[in-house]
Write a structure and sequence with these properties.
Elements lengths: L8 E8 L6 H17 L4 E3 L27 H13 L2 E11 L2 E9 L5 E6 L11 H4 L9 E4 L2 E5 L8 H9 L4 E5 L3 E2 L4 H23 L2 E5 L2 E4 L8 E4 L3 E3 L5 E4 L6 E8 H10 L23
Parallel strand pairs: 1-2, 2-3, 7-8, 8-10
Antiparallel strand pairs: 1-15, 3-4, 4-5, 6-7, 9-12, 10-13, 11-12, 13-14
Length: about 300
């Protein structure tokens, strides 16, 4: 990757939102929150996964494909204009309509001049109760990507991707200094009392581990609030708690669990350089000894 000069320090912004049934209203709310993030100094701003609607994957319903949009389309066009106005990089998750019958859970990366740098398409697609994403989304086919923006090299991964060390590693190896995880994660109401604390702690811990193992900043931006778009189902309580972790896994900023927030944190690339010199995990990788990692399971181990 060619060298590009970036500022050594940059403020990033995470938009933790609640989403209602009106897609146009969600778009306006996201634009307003993006403006607030920029006013607070953020130069790279990220929205939550599938920000433009409620989390529709709680049910398999072919009519909900009507929520999808092309790229370029309403989301990218609106935020390209806003990025150019604010002089900020904006990461915009979209329910992408690629072709009739072909859809992806994607994120568009828009540079500070309004240019659409490209898309990341979610690689790991879940299929769990009330998270029926395989019905809606084809798996990503663009690989793990890094976008060289005006304010730094960013990698974007989406929600279920955040549990996979391979995704974080390959994105970091391509030069990312910051990993952004637009997210929609929460509790099933009947599980919260027994498992809720452990589930959320695991979510935070695994991403802090990615920050440490790869010497990068990690930013996870979640939605917040209770969504029950399917009346006959229990709904999901999205737990918020968007956060930024530094390359030592220290959480340097975190949003609340019960309300919207525009979270900002300063990223210090000189600190990243210091940590990587003293914790040289990438240097000491045994790339000669990892054969088999590309296999599903090693029955003959």
């Amino acid at each position: 990757m060619a060298e590009t000069t970036h500022p050594s320090r940059v403020t990033i912004g995470l938009v933790q939102m609640t989403m209602g049934p009106d897609c146009a209203a969600n778009l306006r709310a996201a634009q307003d929150a993006t403006r607030r993030a920029a006013a607070a100094g953020a130069r790279i701003i990220c929205l939550p996964e599938l920000y433009r609607s409620q989390y529709f994957c709680q049910k398999e319903d072919a009519r909900l494909f009507d929520l999808a949009e092309p790229v370029p389309g309403p989301s990218t066009e609106a935020f390209q204009a806003l990025a150019a106005e604010l002089r900020a990089v904006i990461i915009v998750p979209v329910f992408e309509k690629r072709a009739p019958g072909v859809h992806h859970n994607s994120a568009a990366v828009i540079d500070a001049d309004g240019a659409l740098l490209g898309l990341y398409r979610k690689m790991h697609v879940p299929d769990d109760p009330a998270y029926y994403e395989k019905f809606y989304f084809a798996p990503g086919d663009l690989g793990f990507r890094v976008f060289d923006t005006a304010f730094g090299r960013v990698g974007v991964l989406i929600c279920w991707d955040q549990w996979y060390p391979e995704a974080a590693r390959l994105t970091a190896l391509r030069g990312a200094t910051m990993l952004f995880y637009p997210t929609a994660i929460g509790w099933h109401p009947h599980e919260k009392a027994q498992y809720g604390a452990a589930q959320r702690d695991a979510w935070t811990t695994v991403q802090r581990g990615h920050a440490i193992a790869n010497g990068v900043y990690v930013a996870a931006v979640n939605r917040v609030g209770f969504e029950r778009p399917v009346p006959e189902q229990a709904g999901i309580e999205f737990w918020g708690m968007s956060f930024v972790a530094d390359p030592q896994g220290v959480i340097i900023a975190q949003a609340p669990e019960d309300r919207e927030d525009v979270l900002t944190a300063e990223v210090d690339l000189e600190h990243l350089e210091t940590i990587r010199r003293n914790w040289p995990f990438l240097r000491d990788r045994r790339i000669d000894a990892y054969h088999g990692i590309e296999r599903r399971f090693l029955e003959d181990a």
